Amino acid sequence: MNIRFTIILLIIVAILGGWYYSLKEKDNIGLDHLIKKEGQPEYVGSKISTTVYDLKGNPQYFAQASNIKRYESTERTEFSQPFIELFAKDSTQKQWKVSADYAEITKEKILNLKGNIKLDALDPASRLQQITTDTLTVDLNTQNIFTESAVKSIGSGFTTTGVGLKGNLKQQVATLQKEVKSYIEPTIIKETKE
């Protein structure tokens, strides 16, 4: 009888020990997700929009995205399905709207775009109306643009395709680097009677 009692007590102690250990493990799991791990973003958001201003209080760009991740250690922000509006320097007038599948802004204010990129001029009188490509880098400080991908640009009276592009959105200048093909639309010049 003494042996049976000892075995029953050992079984009860083993069960209680296992139960206590399982509770302790669940407590640790609950706290692990609260601790930021190396390489994870400081904050994550959905359906976010923001406007960035310069030191004079003028807007530089407006950005919105379906998802955003901000990494403070590298001062880098990632956007999923971004929509960005670029403003004219020292003005509140919007010059360009930009959309893509993915974007990243570095601490130097360099915007790297990837996938289905489309830049549309918001001024109907702009010489350069639209640029489409798969990758594009935009310096948000100067609005210089650069890509080595295939590009299609549409402007007033022309459509141009090629590979590689350098330009500036403020100056409405875009130079294709190679394999350039241009299609010029005929223009009608109205005569004035004097």
Describe this structure in words.
The chain has 194 residues and is α+β, with helices and mostly antiparallel strands. It has a single domain (43-184), classed as Lipopolysaccharide (LPS) transport protein A like domain (lipopolysaccharide transport protein A fold, Sandwich). It contains one helix and eleven strands. It has one helix at residues 2-32, and strands at residues 43-53, 59-71, 76-80, 83-87, 94-99, 102-105, 110-121, 128-139, 144-155, 158-168, 173-184. The protein has a six-stranded antiparallel β-barrel with strand order 2-3-6-7-5-4. The longest helix is centred in the first third of the chain and has 31 residues, at 2-32. The chain starts with a helix and ends in a 10-residue tail after the last strand. The mean pLDDT is 82. InterPro entries: LipoPS_assembly_LptC-rel, LPS_export_LptC, LptC. This is Lipopolysaccharide export system protein LptC. It holds the Pfam family LptC. GO terms for molecular function: glycolipid transfer activity; lipopolysaccharide transmembrane transporter activity.
Task: Summarize the structure in short.
This protein has one helix at residues 2-32, and strands spanning 43-53, 59-71, 76-80, 83-87, 94-99, 102-105, 110-121, 128-139, 144-155, 158-168, 173-184.
